[in-house]
């Protein structure tokens, strides 16, 4: 009888321990499932961000290619101008006809300066303001003030 009582008590202890252990494992499984759901949503967000970044990278590469081509074209133009100036003896021309060369240099300098001013004008993208009483009506007819 003592033996069966001892074995019954051991069986009861093992069963209750197993019940507690299984409950603990079920709680951990629930927590892990919740974490998995959160991780899946975060992975989806990160995948979308990666797609956006890749699209932006493609745009950037396209801009870089465009700028590289423009740079190459400009370098060709610079080299052509260098070759043109190398073929001409501007010192002899300046000594022979200083007024002619001075006028051409001044005109070219003014043209370059005006172009530079136009390129660096901070207001170049602002909409021009029309004076009051002038402009167009809603239906497109011109109004004279």
Q: What can you see in these coordinates?
A:
The chain has 145 residues and is mainly α. The chain contains 3 helices and 2 strands, in the order H-H-H-E-E. The longest helix is centred in the first third of the chain and has 86 residues.
Pick out its properties.
single chain; 145 residues; mainly alpha; two-stranded antiparallel sheet; 3 helices; 3% strand
Low-confidence stretches: none
Structural class by SSE content = mainly alpha
| Fraction in helix | over 70%
Total DSSP E strands: 2
Average of pLDDT: 86
| Approximate strand percentage | under 5%
Series of secondary-structure elements, N-terminal to C-terminal? HHHEE
Characterize the biggest β-sheet.
2 strands, antiparallel
Short description:
This protein is an all-alpha fold and about 140 residues long. The protein has helices at about 1-85, 90-95, 100-120; strands spanning about 135, 140-145.
